[in-house]
Design a protein that fits this description.
The structure holds 2 protein chains of 2 kinds.
Chain A (H helix, E strand, L loop, with lengths): L1 H4 L2 H22 L6 H16 L3 H7 L1 H4 L2 H7 L1 H6 L1 H6 L1 H25 L4 H7 L6 H10 L4 H25 L5 H21 L3 H33 L1
Chain B lengths: L1 H21 L6 H14 L5 H13 L6 H5 L5 H6 L1 H26 L5
Helix pairs in contact in B: 1-2, 1-3
Classes of the chains: A mainly alpha, B mainly alpha.
Chain lengths: 234, 114
């Protein structure tokens, strides 16, 4: 029995199965907490805890799923290319809104976490929370954060954006797939983009564009914020 | 063709990773690969059909690929327990502030060009 459970086949099948179940439940109930990523991550964490299985063994058994993460970001090139003419026409508006978004993100996440009494190390590790994990980890180590913590914060932010993003866009009356795609890509990187990409190609195009541009802008701005925080709270 | 489209995407990632490593760029290979493929399409060196099947397969299932990384949150249960309020509140509120900022700024600046 043990060798069946400790196998790629078991964990990959279980992970995909839970994801499909989450998808089914969220379509059926329209309930935010049944977001497929949130649902499958939560159930898997509970299962691993209950069974006393190490994350490292789950991780190596599901590497084949994670492998497709980076290629899926590259795949966003296709919807992006289809919108390229439109994007060129609007490039200033896009660049300015994404810069404003990155600034708002850095300012609010550091302000709120400091206000609520987080550790300086936690605050600095939170700074790159809105960008795709590969960039976030790089930025975090460069600005004196804790890269592994940052990886966790990136996932939390992504899940919030994936679960609540569309709901929130409706709340603020944003019905344009362009503005909405930019907003979600800027706030919640590829995970947020993944959640809206299935709702339309324009979402995917603008989400993909936003996560690239935001990644670059944030890697330039985060060091400044880290410097100020360290200066003030040493 | 599915296989050809996946080959092109994987090759772009490989090129992106190599460039990122050789030039010590602060950008991950996936972002460089995305830009690379977009450039190849724009300069008509590849056709959209060449990557369509693989791209659609990957984009349609993108959220699934995050699940193993998400389960990694299990490693931070100590920190999360201790600082759940500042972390949870700042991530959530900040996410919504970013969404409002981008959506509002873009709406103002691109007015009339829907």
């Amino acid at each position: 029995m043990n060798y069946i459970i400790d196998s790629q086949l078991f964990w990959v099948t279980l992970t995909i199965g839970l994801f499909i179940l989450g998808k089914y439940l969220s379509a059926k109930t329209k309930f935010i907490l049944f977001n497929p990523v949130l649902f499958s991550v939560t159930v898997l964490i509970i299962l691993l805890k209950l069974a006393g299985i190490d994350y490292s063994s789950y991780k190596s058994n599901t590497d084949i799923i994670s492998f497709f993460l980076a290629p899926s970001v590259i795949a966003l090139a296709l919807p992006l290319y289809k919108e390229l003419e439109e994007i060129k026409k609007n490039h200033m508006a896009i660049f300015i809104s994404l810069t404003a978004g990155s600034l708002a993100g850095l300012l609010s996440v550091s302000g709120i976490s400091l206000l609520l009494g987080a550790d300086t190390l936690t605050v600095i590790s939170l700074l790159p929370k809105s960008v795709t994990s590969a960039i976030a980890i790089e930025v975090s180590s460069k600005i004196g954060g804790e890269p592994s913590l940052t990886a966790g914060f990136v996932v939390i932010t992504g899940i919030i954006g994936a679960g609540g993003g569309l709901f929130f866009l409706r709340l603020i009356n944003e019905h344009s797939h362009k503005g909405g795609g930019l907003a979600i890509g800027c706030a919640a990187h590829a995970l947020g983009t993944a959640a809206i990409a299935e709702k339309g190609e324009t979402y995917a195009a603008y989400g993909g564009l936003a996560l690239c541009v935001t990644g670059i802008i944030t890697s330039l701005l985060a060091p400044l914020f880290a410097y100020i925080i360290k200066y003030l709270y040493g | 063709m599915m296989l050809k489209s996946l080959f092109i995407i994987f090759a772009a990632l490989l090129a992106g990773n190599t460039l990122s490593d050789l030039l010590k760029l602060p950008l991950p290979g996936s972002i460089i690969g995305l830009v690379l493929i977009t450039a190849l399409l724009e300069f008509k060196l590849i056709k959209p059909e060449d990557i369509r099947e693989g791209s659609n397969l990957l984009i349609n299932n993108m959220a699934l690929f995050f699940v193993p990384a998400g389960v990694g949150l299990i490693l931070y249960s100590e920190v999360l327990k201790k600082e759940i309020l500042p972390i949870g509140a700042s991530c959530a509120i900040s996410t919504f502030i970013v969404i409002i900022t981008v959506s509002w700024t873009f709406k103002k600046l691109s007015r009339g060009k829907k």
